[in-house]
Amino acid sequence: MSGQLTEARKRLEEISERVDVSPEVVRRLRYPMETLAATIPLRMDDGSLRLLKAWRCRYNDARGPTKGGIRFHPCVDVDHVMSLGFWMTFKCAVMDLPFGGAKGGVQVDPTELSALERERLSRGYVRAFAGIIGPDRDIPAPDMYTDEMVMAWMADEYKTITGAHAPAIVTGKPPGAGGLEGRKEATGRGAYHVLRRLEGKLGLEPEKTRVAVQGFGNAGYEIARLLSESGYRIVGLADSRTTLYDGDGIDPEKAKAHKDKEGSLSGAPTEGKAQEMEAAEFLTCDCDVLVPAALADQITADNAGDIEAKVILEVANGPVCAGADGPLTERGVKVVPDILANAGGVTVSHLEWAMNQARLPWSQEDTRSRLKEAMEREADHVWEIHEDENLSLRAAAYLHGLRRICAAISARGLESTFRR
Ligand code: NAD
């Protein structure tokens, strides 16, 4: 088995060596509880048939039903899905949500599919995995290239299969189909609350802080907008095709309006003289805070030594590889880890799920205030562990989650309970 899950395990082992946690718990967390592979037959608009590889991994359910998104992407494989399920297990524990972790994916390039083909695929996914998902068992959500409408199709298909109206089967639905106003913005907004809570401790003053954001989609746009509103200067924005840099500043709302109209960030208005640069150069551009909000594995052992930023806020899942940890620490770069920084999405998903289960209405104001409170509370906990135990912020976040998972597993008894 390759890459990401091995890295995730390595990080788990490093932390478990530093704390008093039962080796039995660590052994349990090394392996996913259940991973189902399926082949989804997809009838294309031209009548041809494609067979697509798909997975759902329920990594660990010690703290509650498993929770995690579904990704449609050509690079998805079983290793990705399992490692993302591992991260979700820790993320839900860091936020003290009553969920375990899971993830799903289909190996497909969704940009090649028509809307009808995407609808058939979404419904096909639910048919393939209906036996292991459920509102009290495993609750999917959106991830890369699976949006609100995909969630609405999936909820609808589940209703067709079971005959029961169960909107809590997925979260991230459109508000008209049982979703929550405030879910879409939640990941960027949650990361914003974490940075604002920690800014003094990280030595950041908004007016003097220059921010570069890689990824100008849902999460990247929201955090850029909120930081800019609070006085931070956005100096860099990048999407999959364009990188835009201007030391004098970029207004994210104007950049978004330009992208919506022209279909590209290229030529977007900036405060001074804009500069386009190579995608690889963007990560090492002159800035104080770097926000990777696009893909995994962006900061590696190869480029970590050239990072100019003092702080990296991981809005994407896994943008900093384990090999980069050493060089970044040597340079004094603080990494606010994904399992805290991007946990706003699942935090609001929890509210959506609870609202669906309770059949209660919920306002956007309620959502925003609960999100802020949760992100600030757990950011404080992670910072405290970071200082008290002299650990990196990532190790502190893992330790925080591990303690909660450990409490759930050990409540059912460990070797010491049963040994005769
Ligand atoms: P999105 O699809 O809305 O946006 C992704 C953005 O990244 C797009 O602007 C795209 O152009 C850009 N991008 C893709 N490849 C790039 C590249 N090579 N260089 C620069 N930019 C590139 O996705 P999103 O919902 O904003 O998610 C972004 C990241 O945040 C993902 O890693 C996702 O797993 C993570 N995340 C999202 C949520 C959520 O609720 N949306 C929750 C937790 C984590």
Description of the structure:
The chain is an alpha/beta fold and 420 residues long. Helix content is 44%, strand content 16%. It has a seven-stranded mixed beta sheet with strand order 9-8-7-6-10-11-12. A five-stranded mixed beta sheet has the order 1-2-4-3-5. Helix 10 links the parallel strand 11 (311-313) and strand 12. The longest helix has 25 residues, at 364-388. It is globular and about 60 Å long. The model has no long low-confidence stretch (mean pLDDT 95). Residues 143-144, 187, 214-220, 238-240, 279, 293-295, 315-317, 342, 345 line the site of nicotinamide-adenine-dinucleotide. Nicotinamide-adenine-dinucleotide (NAD) is lined by residues 143-144, 187, 214-220, 238-240, 279, 293-295, 315-317, 342, 345.
Key descriptive features of the protein:
5-stranded mixed beta sheet, 12 strands, 7-stranded mixed beta sheet, binds nicotinamide-adenine-dinucleotide, 420 residues, 44% helix, alpha/beta
Helical content stands at: 40-55%
What is the number of strand segments? 12
Mean pLDDT: 95
Strand content is 15-25%
Strand order of the largest sheet: 9-8-7-6-10-11-12
Q: What small molecules does this complex bind?
A: nicotinamide-adenine-dinucleotide
Counting DSSP H or I runs of 4 or more residues, the number of helices is: 15
Unreliable spans: none
Distance between the termini: 36 Å
